[in-house]
Amino acid sequence: MSVKSMSVKSMSVKSMSVKSTSQVLSVNLARVQPNPHKRAEALTGIDKISTPEPVLVRAPGTRREAMGSGLVGDTVCDRGNHGGDTQAVYAYAREDLNYWESILERTLPGGVFGENLTMAGVDVNGAVIGERWRIGDELELAVTAPRIPCGTFRGWIAERGWLRTFAQAALPGTYLSVVSPGQVRAGDRVTVLQRPAHGVTVAHVFRALTLEPALLPSILAAEELEDQIKQMARAGTTYSLG
User: Fold this and answer.
1) Which end of the chain has a smaller Cβ tally under 10 Å, C or N?
2) Confidence band, pLDDT 50/70/90 cuts, at residue 1
3) d(CA 228, CA 6)
4) Whole-number percent of the chain with pLDDT over 90
5) How many Cβ atoms sit within 10 Å of the Cβ of residue 138?
6) Which CATH number does 10-235 carry?
7) Per-domain boundaries in the chain
8) CA gap 179, 198 in Å, rounded
9) Torsion over CA: 33, 166, 51, 134 (sign)
């Protein structure tokens, strides 16, 4: 399987779309099922299917609080590791799913990577930590962190060496927090409202936390990073991809 090579101020970005065609291609909610990839009996919501209906997005609270996901109607099963305010929404680009289709030689519908929002014309990996997006008329989200691939994701994709393959491509998609609640639906336009000047991107943080620990000191320029990631950067610690 080949993989292609791969002081903080806020800048106001007036009416700056990611692209003129930037939009939410699909909104995806969990279809909960047993998780055979966990040792203990467990459920998973990684399989997400698109809905044509508008979905309310709001801050879910801490990981262990009742709501889990930021999307009403979605389910986060492993709340020890997923969900909560800093992982309220997970966005992935349709263009990157197309890339993986060519690598995996299979069809990958929106939601198959567990993403809530499948985006078109949005460089989710080039987004800057702390960047704010307006989606539709009311919803405002903030970029928080890259997705780190887990054992459930590995089992779900069912490709040998998948965690390392995914990491090498550095196309993780991004988690987002909810700044202002609102509804989201397929076809909503996406506009960047604000982009921090530090320039630390989702992909850069992902590379630092996985295969390129030499980058860890540089991600501390992003003051918006959650405390756990800052602690890892200071300690020189990366995530295991075993």
Assistant:
1) C
2) very low
3) 26
4) 74
5) 12
6) 2.40.33.20
7) 10-235
8) 20
9) positive
